[in-house]
């Protein structure tokens, strides 16, 4: 049987044009980037979904991606999926309808249609058999917490497919029985869901495998990563390609450091994710959070902050040449900074706090953490990331 697939990625979450009902109360994005576009343990989530379909025997996969805003976080997605089609967001549904027609004309008997929002490990063989046994025109997948945007469409029922797409996957022409999946499903509606997916994958509750070498049970380090010998890595955790973990740092409790990140001296990353090109300053605690694009999302407090002080968090250049120049500039200015600090009488660090070769983290400026982006409760400046005063414990 000829089975092909269409993936709709980065679909704007707007209201249904016919009912006016909101598709979802959550944005499914972080810093303007859809969560499904972000890397997870070394590989973009969208790429992991397409790879899973190919392993299930579906070779023909059409990826229609809403043209995203320019962001360095999207560079690895473009490199990993160079053949996917970028479509303006307001034309995506029409493009999907045309793609369905093209696949059917090319011989597709069944078409799997997925709006990439949730990450779902659906059992494809039982789903296809269920669809055929029910003699359905359209079969939708249901998880334990409700329906997900995962469908099987019969190629001979073009009108049913067109109706579904013209109603943004919210309505079908004929009511059918859904297929109840027992596989892993994560809605990926908030950065907290991204954290949960990373932890579940490190705990082997999903089929996702970290890209790298398991140097000891539960500790994964990718190629090009540089980890100082004084660093403590507590399983489970992941260090991505070309990332740098400097002396005295601690990475623990399901943390994921994606590619080209820097964790400076004496900092602790606990149950957190650093998105690509993120810099975490010296002597800081980052706990139960997602860091990227100079923003920190706190899972515990359901709040997001933008940080302006580059000594706390910042975003590194997205090209190797610029990163090299940035590191060289930091090295050149290190000695003058230390001289100035000694002249103004800055308190010396305890030897147990940070390696002597590392720069002093300086004093914490509460005014540098500004502009709460989303907030459910009052926040203090030290809620998400704060300077430790008790040493490297």
Summarize the structure in words.
The model is unreliable at 15-25, 321-325, 344-355, 373-384 and 389-393 (pLDDT under 50). Helix 3 (92-105) packs antiparallel against helix 5. The protein is elongated. The protein has two domains: 3-186, Spore Coat Polysaccharide Biosynthesis Protein SpsA, Chain A (Alpha-Beta Complex), CATH 3.90.550.10; 210-387. With 393 residues, it is of the alpha/beta class. The protein has seven helices and 32 strands. The protein has a nine-stranded mixed sheet with strand order 14-15-18-21-24-27-28-29-31. A seven-stranded mixed sheet has the order 7-6-1-8-11-10-12, with helices on both faces. A five-stranded mixed sheet has the order 16-19-22-25-30, with no helix packed on it. The termini are far apart. Helix 2 (75-80) links the parallel strand 6 and strand 7 (85-87).
């Amino acid at each position: 049987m000829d089975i092909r697939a269409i993936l709709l990625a980065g679909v704007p979450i707007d209201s249904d044009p016919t009912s006016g009902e909101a598709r979802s109360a959550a944005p499914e994005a972080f810093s303007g980037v859809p969560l499904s576009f972000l890397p997870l343990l070394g590989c973009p989530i969208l790429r992991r979904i397409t790879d899973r379909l190919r392993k299930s025997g579906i070779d023909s996969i059409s990826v229609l991606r809403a043209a995203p805003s320019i962001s360095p976080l999207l560079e690895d997605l473009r490199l990993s999926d160079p053949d996917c089609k970028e479509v303006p967001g307001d034309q995506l549904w029409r493009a999907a309808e045309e793609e369905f027609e093209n696949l059917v004309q090319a011989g597709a008997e069944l078409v799997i249609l997925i709006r990439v929002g949730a990450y779902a490990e659906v059992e494809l063989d039982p789903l296809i058999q269920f669809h055929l046994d029910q003699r359905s025109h359209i079969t939708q997948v249901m998880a334990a917490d409700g329906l997900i945007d995962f469908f099987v469409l019969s190629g001979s029922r073009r009108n049913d497919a067109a109706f579904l797409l013209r109603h943004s996957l919210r309505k079908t022409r004929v009511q059918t029985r859904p297929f109840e999946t027992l596989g892993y499903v994560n809605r990926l509606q908030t950065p907290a869901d991204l954290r949960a997916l990373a932890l579940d994958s490190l705990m082997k509750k999903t089929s996702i495998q970290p890209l790298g070498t398991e140097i000891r049970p539960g500790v994964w380090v990718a190629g090009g990563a540089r980890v100082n010998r004084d660093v403590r890595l507590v399983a489970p955790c992941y260090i991505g390609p070309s990332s740098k973990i400097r002396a005295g740092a601690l990475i623990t409790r399901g943390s994921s450091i994606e590619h080209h990140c820097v964790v400076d001296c004496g900092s602790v990353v606990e149950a957190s994710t650093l998105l690509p090109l993120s810099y975490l300053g010296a002597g800081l605690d980052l706990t139960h959070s997602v860091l990227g694009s100079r923003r920190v999302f706190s899972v515990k407090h359901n709040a997001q902050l933008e940080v302006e002080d580059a000594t706390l968090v910042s975003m590194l250049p997205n090209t190797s040449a610029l990163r090299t120049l940035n590191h060289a500039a930091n090295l050149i200015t290190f000695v003058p900074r230390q001289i100035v600090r000694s002249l103004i009488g800055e308190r010396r660090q305890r030897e147990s706090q940070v390696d002597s070769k590392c720069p002093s983290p300086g004093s914490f400026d509460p005014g540098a953490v500004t502009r709460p982006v989303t907030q459910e409760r009052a926040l203090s400046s030290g809620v998400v990331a704060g300077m430790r005063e008790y040493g490297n414990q």
